[in-house]
Amino acid sequence: MSELLLIGAGQLGSRHLQGLSRVPGDNRIFVIDPSRESLVRAESRLTEVTDRNTKNLYSFQTSFDSVSENIDLVIVATNSDVRREALDSCISRGKFKNLILEKFLFQKKEDFFEVQKTLKTKNITAWVNCARREFPEFQTLKEKFRGNPIQEVSVSGSNWGMGCNSIHFVDLISYLSDSIEYTLEGNDLMQELYETKRVGYIEFLGSIQGKFDKGPHFTITSTLSEGQGIQIFIKSATFSALIFQSEQRVLFLQKDGENQLETVEPFLIHYQSDLTCKVVTSILETGKCNLTKYDESAKLHMPLFDLFLNHYKKISGNLTELRCPIT
């Protein structure tokens, strides 16, 4: 029997749980959250999954007291401010082999490096849930650009949570271009901090620009205006793709001499519950998945973390702050 542990049963955690409920085989699933309300809501959402694995056993707890000391896979889906603490508590209790962490990884820079050391010492294989690498559509898109280097990428949309979610798109560009090192600047970020629905967290609006050392220039923009879904434009010398994320379609533009051929195809955006089932099943069966390994993701996080923290310090006036309150 596989022993699975989900830490954090909030909105995202409950979707992970739906995915875990469909993992084949005999599984015991522990769900930990200090909020009984969150646990009740997460358990109720299991009823939405009509094809869940009826062999699974579940344990919903507010602490680690009843959790098995030998876990096959852990998902940490807490908010970023308590993620390091939750992970440390889990590691101190027993052994586990595999780990999936939500992003934005941490609010303090030191946590990235301390966790990296701990994972190496404990021989834990860890991935970060930047899930677009698991989309068959992006895997196919990468093949379309093979041999036709991507020169430019732009991401834009209305108020989509730049602080929390930019790492998704930086990770995607890294994946498509097979490049990790990049530089970043944020002169076009708006000179204001924006409160989120979650108390104690902030967001940013405006644009950031970057360049991968062995890859494309890119611009990522989040605007205050309402109504524009996220669009992703990917351009090479002869071929381009414009993805309309909310409409789940893509426009391909192909140069053919002096002409330009246009084709439109579906481009599915997959639910987290479906992706969790796919990823966890792959890890349990093969020890592998397509998510970004922790070490690589930490490198991709760093320029974003530094930029956002410096901007936060500048706008807040707290120049000694070490914590960037994004989640």
Automatic annotation (TrEMBL):
Pfam families: GFO_IDH_MocA (PF01408). InterPro entries: Gfo/Idh/MocA-like_OxRdtase_N (IPR000683), Gfo/Idh/MocA_Oxidoreductases (IPR051450), NAD(P)-bd_dom_sf (IPR036291). Residues 5-129 form the Gfo/Idh/MocA-like oxidoreductase N-terminal domain. One of its GO terms (molecular function) is nucleotide binding. This is Gfo/Idh/MocA-like oxidoreductase N-terminal domain-containing protein. It comes from Leptospira perolatii.
